[in-house]
Amino acid sequence: MNDIQFHHSQTAHCESGVISNLLGHHGLKISEPMAFGIGAGLFFGHLPFVKVNGVPGTTYRIWPGAIFQRVCDRLGVKMKAQKFSSPEKGMATLDETIAAGTPVGLQSSVYYLPYFPPSYRFHFNAHNLVVYGKKDNNYLVSDPVMDTVTEIDPESLIQARFAKGFPAPKGKMYYPVSVPTQVSFEKPVIEGIKQTCHYMLKVPIPMFGVDGIRFLAKRVKKYPEKLDDRRAALYLGNIIRMQEEIGTGGAGFRFVYAAFLQEAAPILKKPELEKLAGELTQIGDLWRNFAFSAGRVCKSRSADNTSYSDLSEMLFRTAAAEEAFFRKLSKAI
């Protein structure tokens, strides 16, 4: 039995949760919202040419791994990250590292994690978790979206780490090799906010940021004429799934970022960030309302006859609210 003492905290999102738990283990206390904000995790993109399970992909956060990289760069944390050509090499290196007393972050597929309920196990290859030891040949797991630590058998962990598909994890593992015990958060917070505002307002590609929300709104309105009923419901259903089931989704990420702004207000001595946090929470509610209405349309249970055109209008209103919010946030910083 491995006797690493690892403190597990449940969080809303896997990547920012692993950051908080791993850095906390090494003495650098950082909350999940602070990690998410410094890492500029909030984002939006609709990519009709990137298929997820055969339908267009929608993302409500920045690409996997970016939050971790930015947090480490901005806080002066040095990380070691590795990928492997074979499961044998990947598992041997994992065993050596945890035997040396170092908890390890892993990228994995949700589908092969047996401690997840069956309804949550689908092919998503960018889930992050921590392995911190072994017991009776099983691996001890701190998965930040679970309420307590758990275990996984070697065969399932190999399948999860070396799953096929996009993005292929290739056994990716990572862990800190140098962590400052004390840091100043002011500059990293400002850099994180500025980067988020840039990505939401100024990326000159119509599929990203607030323009991306409008891009999706236009496409949703045309689903009934461009697709048959089944495909339209499938496309709409995937938007909801990416919003509400992968990580914390569109609404949840807005709530996490609002919590970050509440933490940032006293650090930057800017009480106006508290007010902006409240505004972003209301925007999160707009996303939740959209998901609820879209779900009823998918299941043909809309009592008020909500249409795809109505859903499109909801997205346009959300885009306007997010644009106004990020312009205020950019001005505040």
Automatic annotation (TrEMBL):
Q: What InterPro entries does this protein's entry cite?
A: BtrH_N, DUF4872
Task: Tell me which residues make up the DUF4872 domain.
Answer: 156-329
Tell me which Pfam families the record gives.
Answer: BtrH_N, DUF4872
Q: Where is the Butirosin biosynthesis protein H N-terminal domain?
A: 13-144
Q: Spell out the protein name for this chain.
A: Butirosin biosynthesis protein H-like
Q: Which organism is it from?
A: Chitinophaga dinghuensis
